[in-house]
Design goal:
Strand order of the largest sheet: 1-2-4-3
Order of helices and strands: HHHHEHEEEHHHHHHH
Bound molecules: zinc ion
CATH architecture of the domain at 2-174: Orthogonal Bundle
CATH superfamily of the domain at 2-174: Glucose-regulated metallo-peptidase M90, N-terminal domain
CATH class of the domain at 2-174: Mainly Alpha
Radius of gyration: 19 Å
Helix content: 40-55%
Structural class: alpha/beta
Largest sheet: 4 strands, mixed
Shape: globular
Length: 261
């Protein structure tokens, strides 16, 4: 039976050549790798420093696996292993409660030295997500993690966009918990949006109300940057985000269930 199922799987996946990356919950990592990653991530991520020892291992094993699965391109700055570790850590932070954390659609991550222009566009960008990759300004990446009071974190913002894209527009790496709960999330945000429109003010910065995708990304930013502030000011939104991401950043363990459905 097993062989038959495997054959069937190979038939549909196009045989061995078309291997879809899997997201193991934990890969074995050496102590020296653990210590190195722990030092690099711990220098910037309060989120990581708050984790109990066991979750730190899980976090690092995910960061390592994520990094090994991506190609990092450095534009205007030198290739740096630590940079790749830190960018991977921001993806793992956003997806820590989910099973499928690889954002498998995206093979390429572009790290630019500073804000940049796209094509003929006059506007300056500090990050964006396109079907061909995730783009981040390194200067603004660092700013996002060193200033924790302004609810702005470009890496978390873009990883939130990438997560949504991966689950609704891509073919691989779908997380069933996220998909199901995002639909619930978007139906529960209707009253929140209506309230903002009526009162003409919100705890979230106004950019959140450009469209539903930005509302999602700006909310996730606030959720990780200042979870206490978001919970106090927009408790329904905070709860909805805990459910869809299967984590509560105010708890030391962060993740809510070990086996998300
Ligand atoms: Zn955005």
């Amino acid at each position: 039976m097993r062989t038959f199922l495997r054959k069937l799987k190979e038939l549909f996946s196009g045989g061995h050549d078309n291997v879809i990356p899997v997201a193991p919950d934990e890969v074995i990592i050496s102590d020296s790798l653990y210590n190195n990653y722990s030092f690099v991530i711990g220098s910037l991520f309060t989120y990581f420093n708050e984790l109990p020892e066991k979750e730190k291992r899980k976090f690092i094993s995910r960061v390592h696996h994520f990094k090994e699965n991506k190609k990092f391109h450095y534009i205007g700055l030198e290739t740096n292993e630590d940079t790749a570790i830190l960018v991977s850590a921001s993806a793992v932070q956003v997806t820590f409660g989910l099973k499928n954390y690889l954002l498998s659609h995206f093979n390429d991550i572009y790290i630019l030295a500073d804000a940049y222009r796209m094509d003929e566009d006059e506007e300056l960008y500090i990050g964006h997500v396109a079907p061909d990759g995730i783009y981040l300004s390194w200067k603004h990446f660092l700013y996002g993690y060193s200033n924790r009071s302004d609810n702005i974190n470009v890496a978390v913002h873009e990883m939130a966009h990438a997560l949504l894209y991966n689950n609704f527009f891509a073919q691989y790496g779908i997380d069933s918990h996220f998909r199901l709960n995002y639909e619930r999330f978007s139906s529960s945000t209707g009253p929140i949006l209506a309230d903002v429109i009526t009162s003409r003010r919100s705890y979230l910065r106004s950019y959140a109300f450009s469209n539903l995708h930005e509302f999602w990304a700006v909310s996730v930013e606030a959720f990780f940057e200042n979870p206490k502030g978001l919970k106090e000011n927009m408790p329904e939104l905070f709860e909805a985000l805990c459910k869809v991401l299967n984590q509560d950043p105010l708890t030391p363990h962060k993740t809510l269930k070990s086996e998300p459905c």
